[in-house]
Amino acid sequence: MRILALDTATEACSAALLTSPGADLTQARVLGRYEELGKSNTQQILTMVDALLAEAQMPLAALDAIAASIGPGAFTGVRISVAVAQGLAFGAGLPVVAVTTLETLAWPMIQGGAAGVLACLDARMGEVYWGCFAADAAHGLTALGAPQVGPPASVALPEGRPYRGIGRGFAAYPELAAQPGLTLDPEGCRALPNARDTAWLGALRFARGEGRDPAELSPLYLRDKVALTEAERRRQPAT
Q: In angstroms, rounded to a whole number, what is the distance separating the alpha carbons of residues 18 and 207?
């Protein structure tokens, strides 16, 4: 199995290439590139892809699928992630697999044995993107509800398990640490999505037959607003 993964949905830009002798991922090898750019751009992600394929001595057409981060995240970054994945997939005749940024964030903690994970990204405008996840033997992880966007006070953990938190939403809004049953660590609060984890989830999904036509890939925005109005900014509390 050969899966290329892309993620430009946040201020981190990353690409990864997962290769495995078969569907058994215990022998998988992952190459990756990661850089925090502040603003992701098309040229940087394509440079990363070229470098990974060159290192693996593998043409694009030799891949089985492309795993794309579909958001939520920065509007422009999400569009770049989806558009680049579609362009590469169309050009090489490959299927695509969709993975959300929140799933990507949660995955390493699920792999580490966490019973539950609260993944949280700074959505700007006084809001966070967030979602809760648990381990799933067949699918790697499962969402405990739909991904959400809203003020920190709107975040609510489903009952029945302890949770670990991950993502820069916690660094932006420290009050989220007060959630009952939630454990945080400084490294987790600095985390952004990394395509290495997108690649693992993409491989699991592709092995289950979830590859799709690139034309079916669509962004996950959660909201249709990118900035506050002047009046809304004046109503924001001082920081």
A: 13
The reply to whether 66 and 144 lie within a common domain is no
**Measuring CA to CA, which residue among 88, 124, 120, 91 is closest to residue 15?**
88
Where do we find the tokens 């970054």?
77
Distance CA 228, CA 239 (A): 16
Instruction: Tell whether 163 and 185 lie within a shared domain.
Output: yes
The predicted-structure confidence for 157-193, as pLDDT tens digits, reads as follows: 999 999 999 999 999 999 999 999 999 999 999 999 9
Element (H, E) at 81: helix 75-92
Q: Which long-range contacts (CB under 8 A, 24 or more apart) does 133-138 make?
A: 133/102, 133/103, 133/106, 134/110, 134/161, 135/110, 138/208
Residues 73 and 154 in one domain: no
The pLDDT tens digits of the residues spanning 48-98 come to 999 999 999 999 999 999 999 999 999 999 999 999 999 999 999 999 999
The Cα–Cα gap between 183 and 14 comes to: 27
Please state the domain count of the chain. 2
What is the C-alpha to C-alpha distance for residues 68 and 218, in angstroms, rounded to an integer? 10
Contact by Cβ (8 Å): 227, 96: no
